[in-house]
Design brief:
Helix content is 31%, strand content 15%. It has 476 residues and is an alpha+beta fold.
Length: 476
Amino acid sequence: MAHIGAMQSRPAPIHVVGGGLAGSEASWQLAEAGIPVVLHEMRPSTMTPAHKTENFAELVCSNSFRSDDFESNAVGLLHAEMRHAGSLVMAMGDRHKLPAGGALAVDRDGFAQGVTDALRAHPLIRIEPGEVAALPPAEWGQAIVATGPLTSSSLADSIKTATGQDRLAFFDAIAPIVYRETIDMDVAWFQSRYDKAGPGGGVADYINCPLDRDQYAAFVAGLVAAEKVDFHEWEKDTPYFDGCLPIEVMAERGPETLRHGPMKPMGLTNRHKPHEKAYAVVQLRQDNALGTLFNIVGFQTKMKHGEQVRLLRTIPGLEHAEFARLGGLHRNTFLNSPTLLDETLRLKARPHIRFAGQITGCEGYVESAAVGFMAARFAAAEANGREPLLPPLTTAHGALLAHITGRLAVPGEGSRDFQPMNINFGLFPPLEEAVHSIDGKRLRGTAKTLERKRALSRRALRDFDAWLGETKRLAA
């Protein structure tokens, strides 16, 4: 990880606010590109409710970076792309890895200490302790804000003032998202309620899964009995977002509540059994422009993940469902990025500021670092008088960026339903050709899904390496 030597004429320093995974990766990438960095971190003088140390890139929850399988897992693919790009986070993750099967788990203390030591030793990085209580002023020049879901209240207030958003800290109760190809369309059917045309003109925009009386009663009982996540102490007074109640909270209000809410059967006719009236219906709505992901409408939840999988697979048509994202409930601070940020992560209202990490609307350690990496690459290009070059949509980085900036939003939906997400293959453009086995036969089922993921990964790494080569050529 040798850094670039001294230059005769360097650009002005870029300020990075926040020493988490995104801020640490952004600082490293900028410094390695020959850009001086001022890294601001409020710890230890001002601690958060979750952090325990003053080290950079402290892991406050799990010590796992999740799957390291770059051939058939989207987060493993993101790992591989970051390694190709000289990521500090991945280098230290590899140096401090622990036995964890196919996952990349790390010694959290050794990892954070390694990141801290690397940043403190870099001659182009200056550490500035203390809280940054407001958005960086214009006189600072370029800045990257990477303060994460535990952004200080004063800085959050400054962001609200600048963006016009009325609330940034809330419980985002997130609905599960299903891979379209795993829904059984011999049971489910496409139809909009009362065949009413939506903004795009379609009258069959939803996938519908029917339940009879007994199936509905069992499902509601399962919701009420399911294990739920516990709140941290600092989360207990945080309100739900826009009154978006978890589905199990609605179920606790009475057994018929859901039939008059997100599971109401009115206006729908089962295309497979037109003479049988469903007692309740679960609807799924397209979640991305590619049509590969569908979210379960109104099913925001705080159930534990294992309970979600078990219960959701009792819904007819979802018995074999695979999930791009399970539901969740946690205190979060994130921007409505498709509205507020441009395609290079700049705040439209104050273009000298970029945002990075979880505050942009990504989930996960590695995803946060990846957005920090992209923000730094874009800022470095701008500092050197060049137009930033976006990573291709076919790459994990490009797909993640497109989700954040709204390029994958369903037309007409825009940023209305924007929610944080982990990287997953549902964010990637489909392959142009059908997937075949080595002997040329069309694949089906699990074999088809696995080979499709491998083909997506091969395409992604090829295109990512080409993008890296082009950025280096432009920087030369």
